[in-house]
Amino acid sequence: MIDKKLENAFNDQINKEFYSAYLYLAMKTYFEELNLKGFVNWFDVQVQEEQAHGMGMYDYVHERGGVVELGAIDKPVVEGKTPVEVFEQVLHHEEFVTSRINALMDVAEEVKDRAALSFLNWYLKEQVEEESNVGGLLQTLKLIGDDKKALLILDKDLSTRVFNPPVIG
Ligand code: OFO
Fold first, then answer.
1. Using 50, 70 and 90 to split pLDDT, how confident is the model at 134?
2. How buried is residue 88: exposed, middle or buried, by Cβ count under 10 Å (0-12/13-18/19+)?
3. Which of 127, 128, 132, 137 gets mutated to test ligand 1 (max ligand atoms within 8 A of its CB)?
C-alpha cells in the first residue's frame, strides 16, 4: 500500500505531466500558424509522450493500491514570440519537471519506498534525455538565426520524428 504523502505527491506529478501535454499542444498551435509542419509533428509526438508519462504514474498509483485524484489543469501560456523563444520555454519547462521528479523522489526516500524510487528512476533518465534533446534543438535554432532556408531544412528533419510508446518503470 502506498503512503498517503507519496500518493499525494504522485497525484501532483500526474497533473504536471498532463499540464506538459497541454502546454506542448499550445506550442503545436503556434507552429501550425507558421505552417511549419515538421515542428507541428515534433510537438505532436511530445504531447503523446507527456500523456504516456502521466498515464504511467496513473497506472502505478493504482498498482500500488492508491487512489488517483485528478486536479484542474492550468491554462497553458506560450510565452515565446519566435521559435528560439518557444524552445527556450520548452527547456525551462523540462528543467522544472526534472526538479519536480527529484522532489517526488525525495518524498519516496522520506517514506522509504524503494519500489517507488526504482519506478521513478525511469522518469529521471527520461528527463536527462529530454533536456539534452531540447537543448540540442535550441542550439541548432540559435545557429540558424534568420536563415529561413535552414529553418525549412530543420522543419523537414523534425517531420520524421515518430511516437514510440514508452515502456515505463
Ligand atoms: Fe514528462 O517528460 Fe518531460 O516533461
1. very high
2. middle
3. 127
